[in-house]
Specification:
Blueprint: H1 3-27, H2 30-51, H3 57-61, H4 67-80, H5 92-95, H6 121-130, H7 132-164, H8 168-188, H9 190-231, H10 238-258, H11 264-267, H12 271-277, H13 283-289, H14 296-314, H15 322-344, H16 350-379, H17 386-389, H18 403-427, H19 439-454, H20 470-475
Helix pairs in contact: 1-7, 4-6, 6-7, 7-16, 7-18, 8-16, 9-10, 9-15, 9-16, 9-18, 9-19, 10-14, 10-19, 14-15, 16-18
Length: about 475
């Protein structure tokens, strides 16, 4: 073997070793871990600078690019913090106060329900790099890219070695094998793509339906509170205000129980301790709900229904509002039950998910081998003499590191991997990610509406029209 080809052989072997090491490095996810550590140190340094300066933290960030990316990271960190819901202690003494009372404490401001970012320009690129979705996609894509480059180096080494040693039969077998890999890849790629696109479409549709369900539940809660607050016949009566307070507590707890099994922060709460501490349930009420813990939400709705019917019979609520109010309670229960079923029970078959994942990774593996096979068939004529195939002029040493195979493998695998990662992230819209729902925002917004509408008639308005019961209207 002549010296130029020995050098090329050694360079290809060195490139193969480097490509395998880099593929393993990216497969293990170590870059993501190192990036997270670097960010934590950078955040700590920024906090130290802010503490030692008289200027606010925002002044140090002024002039920096990609504000939206910091907003995305801040939103994800918000999902990891204790919910605002658990920071406000409710009391009957505060609830029955008039709005004009300066000592009245209102529910705290709620955070945003979901993140909204620009979908164009560098925000999209850097946004993908700054969130787990993009980091996992790029990391795994680079791993498959380096694996494809390693396959190119391996094929190159085998071709050089067998050609210069005169192993014609082995070269022909290699050529047949590479042709078969390319044919299998071309024939195989439709079915995994079909399964993946169908699953992704369903997952995005389910994600949007769950978001709509959150807002629909909010709307039904607001309807109930609107009817109750407007139907109070004697809002100045302490009994009427106690009734409104009881409905307020039960509605807030019912809403919280909708998400108790979804949001990680609510899952970690000991509701038997937290709900009495927050003034939302008494210890006796929680004890009554314990035997039906799995149906506590439905039991609370039944309590609301019973209290409303009792309020109609006792005159606390005007009977003219009976039909729309009871209909609103029924619709609220239906929306909550539908949301619960969609979140837990309605999903694609597990067999589909397993088959799709296996076939997609098989397709990516075939692509990482087929691309080098196609390229080397184009660059190398196996029927030509060895010296003609591997002239140092035609095959410069820089080609020993196969950048083109790396790029092809990365682009192809990243497209499919991004879809798999997206499916994994959107399966649970209440996880900690940029596309997750912050249920603390929906609960806080709804509680502020309940607090306002149930107490809307606690203050007498100037020139307020007299409220008559339906029987009095008939008499007049």
């Amino acid at each position: 073997m002549s010296e130029p080809f020995v050098d090329m052989y050694q360079q290809c072997a060195a490139s193969l070793s480097a490509e395998v090491v880099l593929a393993v490095f990216f497969f293990t996810g170590l870059p993501i871990t190192l990036l997270q550590l670097a960010r934590r140190r950078a955040s700590a340094r920024r906090r130290e600078v802010a503490i030692g300066s008289s200027k606010p933290v925002a002044a140090h960030c002024l002039g920096r690019s990609f504000t939206k990316i910091r907003e995305a990271n801040g939103y994800v960190r918000t999902l990891e913090k204790p919910p605002v819901f658990s920071s406000f202690v409710r009391t009957e003494a505060n609830f029955v106060k008039a709005n004009r009372d300066p000592s009245l404490a209102t529910p705290p401001a709620c955070p945003q329900v979901r993140l909204k970012l620009a979908n164009h320009g560098l925000y999209t690129l850097w946004g993908m790099l700054s969130v787990p979705l993009g980091q996992r996609t790029i990391c795994q894509g680079l791993a498959f890219g380096f694996f494809s480059a390693a396959c190119s180096s391996l094929i190159m080494i085998g071709t050089i070695d067998n050609s210069l040693r005169g192993r014609t039969a082995t070269l022909l077998n290699m050529a047949v094998f590479m042709d078969q890999i390319v044919e299998v890849f071309d024939a195989f790629k439709f079915y995994p793509t079909f399964l993946l696109s169908g699953f992704l479409t369903f997952t995005v549709s389910r994600w949007r339906t769950l978001l709509d369900g959150c807002f629909s539940i909010q709307g039904r809660l607001h309807d109930v509170s609107l009817h109750v607050g407007g139907a109070l016949s004697r809002p100045e009566d302490p009994e009427a205000r106690r009734f409104a307070w009881r409905v307020y507590r039960y509605l807030v707890v019912t809403h919280a129980l909708c998400y108790a099994g979804t949001d990680g922060r609510l899952k970690g709460m000991d509701l038997g301790v937290e709900l009495p501490r927050l003034g939302l349930l008494t210890a006796d009420e929680w004890q009554i709900l314990q035997p039906v813990k799995g149906k506590a939400r439905d039991s609370l709705i039944a309590w609301i229904q019973a209290d409303i019917e009792q309020a109609f019979s006792s005159g606390v609520l005007r009977s003219a509002s009976a039909t729309p109010l009871l209909e609103s309670v029924k619709l609220m229960r239906g929306k909550m039950a539908g949301f619960h079923d969609l979140r837990l029970d309605i999903n694609q078959p597990t067999a589909w998910a397993w088959l799709m994942t296996i076939l997609v990774y098989t397709l990516i593996f075939l692509a990482t081998v087929a691309f080098p096979a196609k390229d080397l068939e184009t660059w190398i004529d196996l029927s030509a003499p060895a010296e003609a195939q591997y002239s140092p002029v035609e095959m410069p040493a820089v080609w020993c590191f196969h950048w083109w195979s790396l790029l092809q493998g990365f682009i192809f695998s990243a497209c499919y991997l991004c879809s798999l990662v997206m499916i994994d992230d959107l399966q649970d819209p209440f996880d900690v990610d940029i596309d997750s729902f912050n249920v603390d925002g929906t609960m806080g917004s709804s509680e502020a509406t309940l607090f306002a509408t149930l107490r809307s008639r606690f203050d007498e308005r100037p020139n307020e029209p007299a409220v008559l019961d339906s029987e009095e209207v008939v008499k007049t």
